[in-house]
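Give me structure tokens for this 145-residue protein.
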Amino acid sequence: MKVSSSQLYSLRKSPLDKLVKKFHLHDGNPWLFYNTPIYLFAKDYVANKKGFKNRAMKAPFVQYSMERYNVYTEQYKNNLIQRVISIVKSIKKHRYAKGKYRNKLICVIKRKDGGYELISGKHRAAACLALGMDAIKCNLYKKVK
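Here you go.
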């Protein structure tokens, strides 16, 4: 199934509420994927690669990830930045759902309001949206109670 980019939400986990309040944009629903630090990070990379590495080290996505996982090393920051850049480059070159991602679709669950929560593939989703895709091919899973 294809999910419209305007219907994609970050997975809601209450332990993350404090980080969401601090790092997500609050343009409408902060859980909307367009408001997440990872999407904004990938979008910045796609829009302006020049000087990106310097901006990236202080980007909200990097700060968010360090606080979330309690890891503060330079190696962690570099690996995080390289991972997103690598995924953006791969999807730009091979397109999503082709190449190495053909068997690794983004996974979502249906929300009560008609949207979809992302349960797997946030880096790929960020890359797809940053590259201008209006809809993303996803696997739909049933919510387990």
